[in-house]
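Order emerges. One example.
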Amino acid sequence: MNKYCLACDLANDPELIAEYDRQHMAVWPEILKSITDSGISNMEIYRFGTRLFMIMETDDSFTFERKGAMDEANPKVQEWEQLMWKFQQAIPGSKPGEKWVFMDKIFQL
């Protein structure tokens, strides 16, 4: 198992944040299937204000390149991602077009 931690920001708009939370209470079945089909066995997203934190646990078949190719070929995933850009914004320091960025592990007990 591999674990990845990523961060993203939301637009600083209480109505958009509330809608983003609602969208994630009822994620489309096609999106859930695309996540698990890519080798992600667990995914959690936490929010504090406008900052999002995602923990992904994956099996050995998972790669970000494979997941990206699968997402590009899936119209429903593209529709979901377009919808999510309505709420999300790039985190400071990210590259153009990049929304979720890797976090560096600095401590483990």
In short: The mean pLDDT is 96. The domain at 2-102 is CATH 3.30.70.100 (Alpha-Beta Plaits). The longest strand covers residues 2-10.
